[in-house]
Specification:
heterodimer; A: 179 residues; alpha+beta; 5 strands; B: 849 residues; mainly alpha; 3-stranded antiparallel sheet; 6% strand; ubiquitin conjugating enzyme activity (chain A); nucleotide-binding (chain A); ATP binding (chain A)
Chain lengths: 179, 849
């Protein structure tokens, strides 16, 4: 039987203590643009790397505060096969205030009005700085399939939601994909 | 008493005769005093007619009859010498005082030099002739009354020869000992000037004979000018016949040479005109050859040699031959050249031996000069082929003559090397840029001084090093910092700049090739090179078992000079990590020793701490490290934990985070009949250690025990199989292999090979790299870019190349930062189009649906 004597040279890495980045919510107004840029930058990076299907967004050429978003309707919903363009406009005190998100493509949906305004709690009073572009887009994508019909912006859509087959026809009829 | 003055025996006889005739002593003393006085007057007044020759003759005769001939000869010569030294010599050199400190040839007015030299020579020659006349008088006095006997005439001839040779010796030694250092230079200038003048006239004739009609006008002008010039100086009309022997110019030169010879400057004169001839020849060859390779110039050069320098020499030797036969007085100082010239009859066509010898010398020199010229331009000549075939034919002839083929080979090799490196053509650059391994190869050459298959001189590191040494040398040129040996080597290497070289640039700055700069220009950016170097350095450092990084430090310092400190900062931090690691490691171990001394040491691990060394890195500055989960043996793991705890105690609040898959393990396998030593990676060690408890493992179980995927395990375990330590067999499940420890000598040949003490390094397998390679990094970068591109195209539909480029520049700024050129992006996008991920329509990229 073999006996094994070993000598080990191993390498390791020292931990660099990362300075805590917790910031009190009260200092909202004094947030400098630099950190907002950084935040949006890293959100873009994580969004690009996440590769979640059916959602995407990218800043416009010269302004990282204005993004264009794209959401495709999830499978097995009435919105399957459709693609909607969004615009996301970030405030300078982002992420302490939510971005303004609108549909650019007309969307026949109980919680979206004819101007593309979206009624979604996390974009209003339920906003938290823990959310980011990716979670917003995922939320909107799931909102498509699961609307809140109790307080609709589009009453017609809310009324039609019951009949999924007719709703689907309506979606197809009104859908105008972006060029 | 006609005795040999030098014989001691006769001198004794003389003393005997003196003692017998006391009256003769008085007579001698009178005669001697009188002789001294008249010698003084004879020597100092020899220019004028001798005041009292008869007295002098009688005094000489009395002394001679008393056997004091040698004494009086000696006294006479000494007097002459004193006078010569006092008057003539200093006066002669004074003529040239004006040129003592002249260094720049341009400031020399050649006509002036000629004038001064002529005057000085004339003066001293006159002086010399006068003195020779005095000598002749003494000879005559000594002869007086003896000419009747045949013995006497013979004797007088010996006296004459003796005296004149003695005198000649006095003249030349006096001049030689007082020779100013700039005199040879003056002679050189003189001959150079004369030869150029001669060349202008002879060349005109030569070309006039050779050239076609249309150029005759110009040649006539030349000739007329020359003739005009000659008639100005009052030359005799016979020159019109172009007879060179009568040319006043050659005559003048001949006279100068002759005078110089008679003063004992034979070799000095010969050196001077020979060097002038060679200089002229060299200039002529350059003029003929130039940068035109379309015509053969060898015949023209040979023709010129015949026409100008040989004509000149012919005439010169002929002239000297004439004077030699007329004036026999200088025959004892004949140079080898002069002796040949005796056989030369003026006007005769048969070339003398001297001329033939000169011709051979000149032709050889011409061949060599032309050959060197052509060899230096061989590359251009080859480029111009076949237009340049005439030049190649010339070169071939030259080489047949000189036999210096090796010179050609060496020169051509270095020419190719220079061109390949410096003037790398665009297609080659493109190719090098396109190859993935270009940068890696370059960096390997950088880090590994001896990696090249060729000589040490091929190593890039050496090359850069040498550049550095040159730079150092340039800074300290005049200091004695370089040792003598190096100075000698430098001196031997020195070569004059080519004629066409720009004199404003020093040869060093012109020749210095910034190899790294060139490489960087090929690759496009130094960052890529630095990055590749960093990866290689990381790999090297991580695989070190000691902390010896001297050579890495040296390389880094060199690269810092070329790339700047800031570019190499990360690498420097990496090296500092190693240095710090060494210190920390010692400190951590010191804590163990303390505990051992205080008796707290608990021997719960069977692996002692002192065989263990840790490398602690600041991972932010290192290239991405390959992560690979691994369960290492418990005892070793305990050791790591223990080490980490001690580290934390010393370096609070810092903690160690082990990269257990990295590093090297030296291990020894002990079997019943043998011991084997290996240096392996931790994963190899972990694998083999599992067999300590259990001699047979299925691949699935073993992978689980070690904590690695099965495919990784299969790859790693093959190392032990190849060493004959483990054997592989198929288990019940076809995908599951069984590995069994091979024990004892029951194995096949493999065991035999590795039995005994063998140390194997199991590195360099592709999968064993500690650091992500640059290609891996690049692939990772490109994946990021692809996602960004997909992202922007999803939201913006279609985009043009430069908009994509700008957008990436704008938003892809986190690690990895987008740093590609538009061209690189284009080729990357083309790749994506080829993969059918993108579509290119009217210059716009869009996602393929």
């Amino acid at each position: 039987m073999a006996t094994i004597n070993n000598q080990d040279n191993n390498n390791n890495r020292q931990i660099n203590n990362v300075a805590s980045s917790k910031q009190p919510l009260q200092t909202v107004k004094s947030v400098d643009t630099q950190s907002v840029l950084k935040r949006l930058q890293s959100e873009l990076m994580s969004l690009m790397m996440s590769g979640d299907p059916g959602i995407s967004a990218f800043p416009e050429e010269d302004n990282i505060f204005c993004w264009k978003g794209t959401i495709t309707g999830s499978k097995d919903t009435v919105f399957e096969g459709t693609e909607y363009k969004l615009s996301l406009s970030f405030p300078t005190d982002y992420p302490f205030k939510p971005p303004k998100v609108k549909f650019e493509t007309g969307c026949f949906h109980p919680n979206v009005d004819i101007y593309g305004t979206i009624c979604l709690d996390i974009l209003q009073d339920k906003w938290s700085s823990a959310y980011d572009v990716r979670t917003i887009l995922i939320s909107i994508q799931s909102l498509l399939g699961e609307p809140n019909t109790s307080s609709p912006l589009n009453a017609q859509a809310a009324a039609l939601w019951e009949n999924q087959e007719d709703y689907r026809k309506m979606v197809e009829k009104l859908y105008k994909p972006a060029a | 008493m006609t005795v040999d003055a030098t014989s001691a025996v006769c001198n004794l006889g003389l003393l005997d005769s003196l003692s017998q005739h006391p009256g003769s002593v008085t007579e001698i003393s009178h005669a001697w005093n009188a002789f001294c006085i008249s010698t003084e007057s004879v020597v100092s007044n020899c220019t004028s007619t001798n005041p009292d020759p008869s007295n002098f003759v009688s005094q000489v005769r009395i002394l001679r009859n008393h056997g004091l001939q040698s004494l009086l000869q000696h006294h006479f010569l000494t007097t002459i010498q004193e006078l010569f030294e006092k008057n003539s010599v200093s006066k002669f050199w004074q003529h040239f005082d004006a040129y003592t400190n002249v260094i720049d040839t341009d400031l020399i007015h050649e006509d002036e030099v000629q004038q001064v030299l002529h005057t000085a020579l004339e003066e001293i020659t006159l002086e010399k002739q006068n003195q020779e006349r005095c000598l002749a008088m003494l000879t005559h006095a000594l002869q007086f009354g003896k000419e009747t006997t045949s013995e006497g005439s013979q004797k007088s001839d010996t006296d004459r020869v003796y005296l004149s040779s003695k005198y000649q010796l006095i003249v030349s030694s006096t001049l030689m000992t007082t020779l100013p250092r700039h005199f040879p230079q003056i002679l050189h200038w003189y001959f150079k000037g004369r030869l150029e003048e001669l060349n202008t006239s002879l060349d005109g004739e030569y070309q006039g004979l050779d050239r076609s009609q249309d150029e005759e006008d110009m040649d006539l002008d030349n000739k007329n000018k020359f003739l005009h010039e000659k008639s100005d100086t009052g030359s005799d009309k016979s020159y019109q016949g172009k007879s060179l022997e009568n040319s006043k110019l050659v005559k003048n030169i001949g006279k100068v040479v002759h005078d110089l010879r008679s003063l004992g400057f034979t070799s000095l004169a010969e050196d001077a005109y020979a060097s002038a001839i060679f200089m002229l020849l060299k200039a002529k060859v350059n003029e003929f050859a130039g940068d035109d390779y379309r015509s053969s110039v060898l015949d023209a050069i040979k023709g010129w040699i015949q026409a100008v320098p040989l004509q000149f020499l012919h005439a010169l030797l002929a002239y000297l031959g004439d004077t030699l036969s007329n004036g026999r007085h200088s025959s004892i100082l004949k140079s080898p050249l002069a002796s040949h010239s005796n056989s030369l009859y003026p006007g005769s066509d048969a070339p003398s031996e001297g001329i033939v010898r000169w011709q051979l010398r000149l032709e050889y020199f011409a061949y060599e000069t032309l050959q060197d010229l052509r060899i230096a331009k061989l590359f251009e000549i080859i480029v111009d082929y076949p237009d340049s075939s005439a030049a190649i034919e010339d070169l071939k002839q030259c080489l047949e003559y000189t036999g210096q083929h090796s010179k050609l080979v060496d020169s051509f090799i270095s020419a190719l090397r220079y061109r390949l490196l410096t003037a790398v053509g665009e297609p080659i650059r493109e190719y090098l840029r396109g190859r993935k391994d270009t940068i890696k190869c370059i960096v390997t050459m950088l880090t590994d001084g001896t990696s090249g298959p060729g000589s040490v001189g091929d190593s890039l590191l050496e090359e850069i090093n040498r550049d550095e040494e040159n730079l150092d040398g340039a800074g300290l040129d005049d200091e004695i910092s370089t040792d003598d040996k190096q100075a000698w080597i430098d001196a031997e290497r020195w070569e004059p700049d080519p004629v066409e070289a720009d004199p404003l640039k020093s040869s060093r700055s012109r020749r210095k090739i910034d190899i790294l700069g060139m490489i960087v220009s090929i690759i496009g950016s130094k960052d890529q090179l630095v990055n590749e170097y960093r990866v290689m350095l990381a790999e090297k450092l991580l695989n070190k078992t000691d902390y010896d990084i001297d050579s890495e430090i040296r390389t880094l310092e060199l690269l810092k000079i070329h790339f700047g400190e800031s570019s190499m900062q990360k690498c420097e931090i990496m090296l500092n990590d190693l240095i710090d690691s060494k210190r920390t490691n010692t400190n951590v171990k010191a804590t163990i020793k303390q505990k051992m001394q205080s008796g707290i040491d608990s021997r719960e691990t069977d692996v002692p701490m002192d065989v263990f060394d840790a490398t602690i890195i600041s991972s932010n500055f290192w290239p991405p490290i390959q992560e690979e989960a691994l369960n290492i043996p418990g005892t070793v793991d305990n050791l790591l934990t223990d080490y980490a705890t001690r580290f934390n105690e010393i370096k609070t609040p810092r903690k160690l985070l082990w990269k257990k898959n990295l590093g090297t393990v030296k291990l020894e396998l002990q079997f019943e009949d043998r011991e084997l030593q290996f240096t392996v990676t931790p994963i190899h060690a972990s694998i083999i250690m599992q067999f300590q408890e259990q001699t047979s493992w299925t691949s699935k179980d073993l992978a689980a025990a070690i904590g690695v995927p099965v495919d990784v395990l299969n790859r790693r375990v093959s190392f032990w199989i190849s060493k004959g330590i483990l054997a592989e067999s198929f288990g019940t499940d076809s995908s599951d292999h069984v590995f069994t420890l091979v024990d004892g000598m029951i194995d096949n040949g493999k065991t035999g090979i590795s039995s005994g003490n063998c140390e194997e390094l199991a590195a360099d397998e592709d999968g064993d790299r500690s650091v992500a390679s640059v290609e891996d990094q690049l692939r990772k970068e490109m994946t990021v870019y692809e996602k960004f591109i997909t992202g922007m195209l999803t939201n913006f539909g279609s985009m043009a190349l430069d908009r994509i480029h700008n957008t990436l520049k704008m938003f892809c700024i986190a690690d990895p930062t987008y740093d590609k050129s538009l061209q690189q992006l284009q080729s990357f996008l083309s790749g994506l189009v080829a993969e059918e991920k993108l579509e290119l329509r009217d210059g716009m990229y869009l996602l393929k649906k």
